[in-house]
Amino acid sequence: MSNVSSKPAALLDPEPRNAHGVTWGPAAAVLVSALAMAGAYLTAGLVAYMLPHLLGWQPERAAKWFDSVSGQFAFLMLAEAAIVVIIWRFLRYRKAQITTLGFKRRPQLMDAVWVLITFGAYFIAVMVLTAFAKALFHIDLDQKQELGFDTVVSNGERLLTFISLVVVPPLVEEFMFRGFLFTGLRSKLPFAWAAVITSILFASLHLAEGAGGVLWVAGIDTFVLSLFLCFLRERTGNLWAGIALHAVKNSVAFLYLYVFVPH
């Protein structure tokens, strides 16, 4: 458990943390995170595009596969793996330990308690903020989010979608955003600034997922979620509670989109 979580007088320490073990600062955290995202998705896109051609598939078959559930699954797995490799290589270059990102201990029962508390608070906060944004800015709450899995029919496709949305993103995105990015920002900045910057960058990635324009609803949702994930990272000193909360949130969306209201 970190020093922060052992303080009985306060939930959060507003001052920058002791950067013991953190060999990168805010600038490197933002730059490497941006390059990791761009490089990973570019690499995954090129591989996913070239693979059918290397296998000798016809253009029609290649295009159909890339838009299929299995094609989207392959693309996302390649991208997520590339993100981990890029950040891992940077940590090795800076001689940093993986524990610095928030893997200092095994998951504990208290992590589950924090997940239950923060999920309820997150749900209320996002509902209030979304309603406020609709009333003030007249945003479209019914805009469809493009997840890339619009043709899920079989149980096998549903399993691939579950892995792509519920299993892998919570692990990789917490590893990068609340692990690498937030830790680098927090080494020099107060908690509030580190959390807000992390959440803005995290939310900005989801703004372009809408059909027909900027998806403000997803931006608001992911911004609020990230604030609570940063809180869990700070409060527990580890990523396990944040990974679990992220997975629970994505599970709710998965159940609604692909189980209760199947495509």
Explain what this protein looks like in three dimensions.
The protein has 263 residues and is mainly alpha-helical. The chain has one domain. Helices cover 68% and strands 0% of the residues. It is built from eight helices and no strands. The longest helix is centred in the middle third of the chain and has 32 residues. It starts with 25 loop residues before the first helix and ends with a helix. The N terminus is likely disordered.
Quick tags:
single chain, 263 residues, mainly alpha, 8 helices, disordered N terminus
Question: How would you briefly describe this protein structure?
Answer:
By secondary structure, the chain is mostly helical. It is built from eight helices and no strands. It starts with 25 loop residues before the first helix and ends with a helix.
